[in-house]
């Protein structure tokens, strides 16, 4: 199984379609398969290469990567990819890391001592930045927010 396939199984959930088939497929990856010795330098490089490609191809034309809440530096995608990388590197030694979803992964990483406890709870808390930035506009009907306002905004 390739590195990206293992990484994809960390996130696999059934959302639609045949329920029994979906459960069966998701069960194939549970607990999430992880390399027995963690990741090799080549696998880490592959993950970073794919992440860089995703960053360059998915950021909308004209979007400022410094303020884009999902795809910008330090945004949601960086948090997700970092959690997945740490899971793949350390889940063989810490079986509690074999969870799906970013929030449970952050909590498990903090519990395993691989992430500062305050980072794990702050990033994983519902309504925290950057995830919480999109919520007020969704409630107001203003549409999806993808960038933080610039300096001087209050």
Automatic annotation (TrEMBL):
SUPFAM superfamilies xref list: Nucleotidyltransferase substrate binding subunit/domain (SSF81593)
GO molecular function: [glutamate-ammonia-ligase] adenylyltransferase activity
Family annotation (Pfam families): GlnD_UR_UTase
Keyword tags: Nucleotidyltransferase, Transferase
Gene3D superfamilies tied to this protein: Nucleotidyltransferases domain 2
GO cellular component: cytosol
InterPro entries attached to this UniProt entry: GlnE, PII_UdlTrfase/GS_AdlTrfase
UniProt keyword Nucleotidyltransferase present: yes
Region Disordered: start-end pairs: 119-154
Keyword Ribonucleoprotein in record: no
Domain PII-uridylyltransferase/Glutamine-synthetase adenylyltransferase: 66-118
UniProt GO BP: regulation of glutamine family amino acid metabolic process
The protein's name: Glutamine synthetase adenylyltransferase
Native species: Modestobacter marinus
């Amino acid at each position: 199984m390739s590195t990206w396939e293992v990484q994809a199984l960390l996130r696999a959930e059934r959302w639609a379609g045949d329920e029994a088939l979906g459960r069966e497929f998701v069960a194939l990856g549970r607990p999430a398969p992880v390399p027995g010795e963690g990741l090799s330098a080549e696998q880490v490089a592959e993950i970073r290469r794919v992440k860089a490609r995703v960053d360059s191809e998915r950021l909308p034309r004209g979007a400022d990567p410094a303020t884009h809440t999902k795809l910008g530096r330090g945004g949601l995608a960086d948090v997700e990819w970092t959690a997945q990388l740490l899971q793949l590197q350390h889940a063989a030694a810490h079986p509690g890391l074999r969870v799906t979803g970013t929030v449970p992964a952050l909590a498990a990483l903090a519990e395993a001592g691989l992430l500062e406890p305050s980072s794990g709870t702050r990033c994983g808390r519902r309504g925290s930045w950057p995830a919480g930035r999109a919520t007020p506009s969704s409630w107001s009907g203003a549409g999806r927010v993808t960038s933080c306002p610039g300096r001087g905004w209050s």
